[in-house]
Specification:
Elements lengths: L2 H7 L10 E6 L12 E6 L2 H4 L2 E6 L2 E6 L1 H10 L1 H4 L1 H13 L5 H10 L3 H11 L1
Parallel strand pairs: 1-2
Antiparallel strand pairs: 3-4
Helix pairs in contact: 1-3, 3-5, 3-6, 6-7
Length: 125
């Protein structure tokens, strides 16, 4: 799970997703799922494999991105979620101490959004 779904799970920001956001490999086949509504974003390499936590939901193990990776992903996929959502996630995550500035910066470099996130990270730090 990623982006808005991960933000909701980690209680970062005020976004309530009406779809389950999933990140899959660029080369993977997109599964056809009727329920629940799902939205897929594509990635490969380190942005797909770094920052994953395993949680249990209704007896099943689910992989979800940690708070720092989720915030970095919001900046990476800002065209999908909106820049306002990304900034709100950054402010909320740092204010509520869900992650440190170092974790955010490391994940920003992994997602290749360091130059985009730097001014906002400097403003909230």
């Amino acid at each position: 799970m990623c982006l808005l779904s991960a933000l909701a799970y980690h209680e970062i920001g005020t976004q309530l997703p009406h779809e389950v956001w999933m990140m899959i490999d660029r080369r993977a086949h997109r599964p056809k799922v009727d329920h629940p509504p799902m939205r897929f974003v594509l990635a490969s390499g380190a942005p797909l494999t770094e920052g994953i936590e395993r949680i249990t939901i209704e007896g099943r193990t689910v992989r979800i991105f940690n708070p720092a990776k989720t915030v970095a992903d919001c900046f990476r996929y800002r065209r999908h979620v909106g820049m306002e959502v990304a900034i709100e996630a950054l402010r909320s995550a740092t204010r509520d101490r869900r992650c440190t500035a170092d974790e955010l910066w490391r994940n920003a470099k992994i997602c290749r959004v360091g130059s985009v996130m730097r001014p906002y990270l400097e403003a909230v730090a």
